[in-house]
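Supplementary notes for students who missed Thursday's class. We covered one full example, reproduced here. Read the sequence, then the structure, then the short commentary at the end.
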Amino acid sequence: MPHSSQAPAPWHSFLGELDRESTEETRLDCMGGFVVTLLYGLPRATSDLDVLLIAPREQRAPLLELGVRGGALHRKYKIYLDYVAVARVPEDYEDRLTEMFPGAYTLRPRAIQARTQHPARPRRCKAPGARHPPRLENPQGALRKRTSLAAR
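Structure (token representation):
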């Protein structure tokens, strides 16, 4: 996973201006295209920084006012801060956060680290004599199989 000491342009300038607006160390939990592109190096065009959390809470309003879509920084850099009020995130997402640009800003953009292992496959029923439901790839065959089982 590529790590850099600072974000590339125009993100560096955008984050720098937000950084100057913040009056204390501020946590930004990020997701979306910004993370996929800058943290994982995958090609994806994006013009926003999706943020799940801005903490402490007192920093949220001034940062959003400056970085919001249609705001001063959006007009200047053509990118904006998008506060995501509703999103599906892993239950343990806070344990998996990694700082994106350590020490570069008073803002602390963090992103969810990808898992290094594939999720476990669903466990199959191993009970003796247990039967699995018929496969749905062939609904006609599944119906015939179910009918023949019922006739037993």
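Commentary. The CA atoms of residues 6 and 93 lie 23 Å apart. Helices lie at 11-21, 33-38, 60-67, 72-77, 139-151. If anything here is unclear, bring it to office hours.
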